[in-house]
Protein 1
Amino acid sequence: MFELLGTALVHILQVKYLLPLFLGTLAGVIGGALPGVTITMTIIVALPFTFGLDPLQGLAAMAGLYVGGSAGGLVTAVLLGIPGTPSTVATTFDGYPMGRKEPGRALWLGIWGSFFGGMLGGVFLIFTTKPLAEFALAFGPWEYFSLFVLALSMVAGLVEASLVKALVSGFIGLIVTVLGNDPMLGGPRLTLGIPFLEGGIPFLPVLIGVFAFAQIMSEVEKSGGGGSMAPPVANAGSLKVSQLKVIGEILSRPFLLVWSAIIGVWIGVLPAIGGSAANIMAYDQAKKFSKHPEKFGTGIPEGIIASEAGNNANVGGSLVTIMAFGIPGDAVTAVMLGAMTIHGIQSGPLFIQQHPDIAYGIFAAYIVAHPIMVLILGLGARFAMRIMTIPKSTLFPIVLVLCVIGAFALDNSMDTVYVLLVFGVIGYLMVKAGFPLAPFILGAILGDQIEINLIRSIMTDPNPMLFITRPISGGLLLASVASVVFSLWQHRRTQRRLAAAATQPAPSDEDIADF
Amino acid sequence: MGRDTIAGLVVLVVSLVLFGLTFRIQSNPLVPVSPAFYPRLVLGATAVLSALMVAIDLVKRRRARPSPPNAKAAVAKPRYDMVALLFAIFAVYVLILPYLGFRIATVAFLAAMQYAMARPATARAWVVLALVALIATAATYYMFEVYLQVLLPRGRWTDF
């Protein structure tokens, strides 16, 4: 393993790979720093730039983008109090109060917290992907089917919308995969008289259309087409700070760092949760374990370290899930999975065995992306703040052109661009109707695999009880049921709390001022 | 009718229509499981869930207390007009792309989108609009066609 990793590191450090990795990390940092532009969107926009590259070059760029995007959001979180991505929400709680007094310290605590958290996530990624992939090799179609059901039920249960609505969203995603093509025999079905559909609907234009339009049009609807993504830089304080002192501040809290990274990794491994939950849960745990929880929210280093370490360790965990099981953990990894497919990589249990050079290349790219991320954030934080003042009327049209190129370049056909347009409209309408997009995307990505494994299992043995009596499959289905029951319980509890809050007298202006 | 009711009914109708179409799918005698089996499973479950969504929304609305008349007064008015306009510009772009080619269509698209989103008020703003449209098109064209060797659409009418 170490020999393969060493060789991969030497490979990645060649200019041929280092350049796309650097550019990917830079794009990730910029995209992550732009409030309103998510990591998913950044990956979607950057994806077409990797089409002409060899698989490892393209995937190195994607790995850098993921690492850079996860960390980039802290710039605005700390200096403006606006989280650049949903996965840096908790960073603002202490980052911004500290950033108003000591912007350099707050920024660098976030940068180094991201670095150490991400590297701990990398250790997990490198050491567990192979054993987990070997474990997954024991899976039959029953287990895969149950695993996909678990992923869908978890994503449906964990989104903020109602469970039924989230499940409908997931099923709409599955409908996309039943149109046009039977994945078992390859024959046409439900083509609706459109010849292009005979090959099925390619999921990448679906993904690009749904996410890009949902985000851009929602932003335009909310605040019109003028203005920029963030206000001009107001915080002009010096960002200079003693690096050793900041690193010392982080490493003198080893329990906090490791525990936050474990939470991040664990949430990354679980299908469907993602960086935003990792960030908030790591912060919440740090507060619970702290001797002075009352100081959280006032600008203490623990709050920044925990949230950033958790958020960045999450990337390692998410990559384990796609590399070992071939299942996207969240929307970002769903796009990453798409990127791997485009570069001819079938991710899953056999991936690390069949393509060890690529798998260890991704590990190496992930590791090298971290010092690059530190370098970019350290040198370019102020520049990133300036990019945020680019008018929306300049940024959004260019993003849409890149989306068109991404869709067109898939098979040099305008048909995929029309799919992009249709699903752009559908994505926006789904957002307007209050459907969460994550279950839809997961359904659209996993649909074919769910069908293939269901049909294979029935053709192998038509006894449906095997889904329950086979231990791993039964366990996964039980976890799916538990996930649904838990989300129902959680929803009821929230409703009861809201009802109780509604019966309380409204707070006075003084109460609000105190808060 | 509430938002969830309308959305649920749309999904219900679509899933039922598609469910009906599954009966036209021909089975393969060599394969024991019909290609219509899984689509029916998915579409049937979607129909049931969307019907449930409609029912939940109707029950909730019946139980809900009416909100005060000025409860939504502070919310900014959504810019649906601009959203519709931008979708229309994008649709026109996509439709004319194969006829005008990437370079001409993209310059026009970028200029039209910028104009629609933030109308230039000064001569300088017009120059910026034109420069953004030209430079962004040239940059993407050279990046993809020349550097990354990704072919972009040529125009049937313009051959450009």
Protein 2
Amino acid sequence: MTHGQFGPHLYFADDPIGDWQEATGLAFGESDGATVERIWSIQPAEREGMLWAGVAPAALFRSSDAGRSWSLVRSLWEEPSRPKWSLGAGGQCLHSIVTWPGDPARLAIGISAAGVWLTDDEGETWRRGVQGLVSRYLPDEARAESYDQCVHNVHRSPTQPETLYLQFHGGVYRSDDAGESWNDIGTDTGLPSDFGFPLVADPNDPDRAFVIPLEGDFDRVTPGGALRVYETSDRGVSWRPLSEGLPQKDAYLTILRQAFAHDGGNPLGLYFGAESGDVFGSADGGASWNVIADHLPPVVSVRVA
Amino acid sequence: MAIVQLRSPLRELAGGSGEVEVDGRTVGEVVRGLAEANPRLRGWVLDESGRLRRHVSLFLNDASTGLDASVSPKDKIFILGAISGGAAETELLVGTRKGLFVLRGARGGPMSEVARKFSGQTCEYAIRDPRSGTYYA
């Protein structure tokens, strides 16, 4: 939660309708020279009682007491390359925390704009996983040495953990080797645009993923005034639009990074919200959609409880 | 006595307390004792024939359990409505620029707002940890 004047704070509750308590420790130390500006993601870890949180400026926090208190993961904060990391348009943020089912040591994180980082030792050491990502917004000659990889979203297929899907700042990618390298699945594959933020990987089918493209970097609305979710069921070889029940005329919506979610069911339940305050849902894997709620304030995130 | 943990709407039906101590040697005895002490809860957890309702889950401490499980003093029993993954009712956590909205309704269909928390603040992210049932925002 971020209060306009009093900054970000993290809360927890046993009942979302009841009282929430504030967690402690989600802050930098006095000597770190930084202030937590926004909490981007909270993710249960693969160890009992442990959670991860990603914030802006790009940093990872860990809780070992079910979210009551938090501490900075210093190995990533003090990563030697950090001075070379870039800012995304929304600030430098750690927005994607991708656990490995059953293995608490392995983790992938996505940072805008500093690429994908991988650890095999629960955050003690880190390495980049950016081979194959193309920063088209940089001059050709600057790409090889740059740390400016503007990752927008990363998700893992839990039944085949080596498979990850990634929405880039211009580009959609799939990794077959747990995030070490990436394959372009956004070019000439049926997407109206390979720019966007929302992404879902089907938890029951590693070949299936969903994106909601936006027109482009300088026009962040649904292309052509039509609201369409795109589905691949062949690992990104091809994408097809899903639009039944979604507005197809004069619908210039913006769907933000964390505002697209699934319920894990089979058929998969899918939900997303827009800055317009509309929330849409599907109980049949996206084949048909309903308005779940409307006239809400601009939607920033959607998750199924 | 076992400690029964309740969430909405059961909590309100039990007089607003999220934690109730109830006697019983089994989970079933505790659940029945809970309804006897709080008549408004009758029919909510167990159906007319005394069976656990299909979309209600029981946990004894950290593990899923049934009505026949033995209970020791200070054991914690959680009574939860199944709320995702194909269950009858889905709960959505919708973070907005003006607070967290908790929506409930049929899976994939129109939902009702059951709570708005942190009014006026930006909720960038909200999630429920499926292992513990704890919510974070």
